[in-house]
Amino acid sequence: MPAESHSLSKGKEISVAANKERKKDGKPMKRSGSSLNFKKLVPKILRSASMKNLFKSKKPRTPVDVVRNTRSLLLYLDSATDTAGKPKRDEKLEQLDSLIRELKSILYGIDDSEPVAEACAQLTQEFFHEDTLRLLIQTLPKLNFETRKDATQIVANLQRQPVQSRLIASEYLEANLDLMDQLITGYDDPVNALHFGGMLRESIRHQVVARYVLKSEHLKKFFDYVQLPNFDVASDAAATFKELLTRHKSTVSEFLTINYRWFFVEFNSKLLESTNYMTRRYAIKLLGDILLDRSNSNVMIRYVSSKDNLRVQMNLLRESQKNIQIDAFHVFKLFVANQCKPADIINILCANRSKLLRFFDGFAIEKEDEMFESDKAQVIKEIEELQPTTPITCSGELFKPIAV
Question: Fewest CB atoms within 10 Å of the CB: 18, 83, 168, 381?
Fold first, then answer.
């Protein structure tokens, strides 16, 4: 045996003997710290997501895959109980955050890149194919805050996405109108009200949805929602209420014609005569938008033929806030311009002629407005030329003057 090999062999024997001696003494042989740390680190690295992905194919997910994965996680979240393991739940939420951001990127594009129409169509078709919208609405309160905002934007975008020249969102909602009940009552949840309100408003873009909401008992809740103490929620509900009453002309006209009596009793008492300034201001402006729309001409004639409605408008003219006065004027002038005024309307105007003329003499707006000045001049002229009649219901007596 060569001397060098003999030397190496001898060294190994000494090393093994030394190790045996240490084990006998109960003192295990010490290894270097770096060697131990490395051995502990290797399994962690191999278990990590980044290393797993390293050995997987880099084939990108299709829009259909993203929707299906999202639906799977939403199903888990919807069925998960409060006692479910928090670590697992948090992991699923994190995955859901990523997927919903991916859905948003497909629909809206990333940075300066425009969305791909074909990808958007595939996503939209899959989204409405297996009730993903219902799942999203049901689980919305369980999502992380930023993800809730992304989800609201996704739903908004999907309402406008054509698939083979069809708005399949409209077809889906027509078959699932009960979802609107969940969205409307979402205003009762101050934490998520803005998200539900945003989804509801976008859904109202479809006439079939607006008709359903207008006919539902939930509509009456808006008279309370627009006066909620939370200003942001009240403002959102007010925006939705306006959308319902102004977007789809024929549907709104039909609704107001059939439900005229109860609707305007509620509108006057709860909104126009509210003690809250912001509510009165919102209501009088909305009323003007409704009555001045040509499609509501029959409703307008009916409204301006009521002495109770006239009293409400004359009291609003007395407001100290100029904005309310101006919007009330635009409704009041319809009473005066009506060429078929009932006798009681004529007599109220005549009984208050001097006060009205005195009021309009000093009534002005800050910016010059030829249309406003022209309307005011016409109102003054009409009031000056009015001749009182004897109302049938008053046995020849005029109505008592109304303070202005």
Answer: 83
Query: What pLDDT digit, counting tens, does each position of 330-349 carry?
Result: 999 999 999 999 999 999 99
List C-alpha distances in Å: 129 to 58, 63, 64.
27, 13, 11
In tens, the pLDDT along 392-404 reads: 444 333 334 444 3
Mapped onto helix, strand or coil, the DSSP state of residue 224 is: helix
Which amino acid would we find at residue 396?
G
The strand pairing partners of 163, in sequence order, are: 166
According to DSSP, residue 60 is labeled: P
Name the token pair of 3: 């001397």
Torsion angles phi and psi, residue 166, rounded to 5:
-120, 145
For the chain, how many helices (H) and strands (E)? Answer: 23, 0
Mutual orientation of helices 168-175 and 117-129 as an angle, nearest 10°? 10
What proportions of the chain, in percent to the nearest 5, are helix, strand and coil? 75, 0, 25
Residue 163 backbone dihedrals phi, psi, to 5 degrees: -125, 110
User: Is pLDDT larger for residue 365 or for residue 386?
Assistant: 386
What's the rounded Cα separation, in Å, for the pair 222 and 234?
A: 9
Residue with tokens 């005011």: 376
This prediction has a pTM of 0.79
Which tokens is 313 given? 């408008």
> Vertex 378, ends 372 and 382: CA angle to 5°?
145
Cα–Cα separations (whole angstroms), residue 193 to 78, 188, 222: 19, 7, 13
pLDDT at 28 over 70: no
* Residue 268 pLDDT > 90: yes
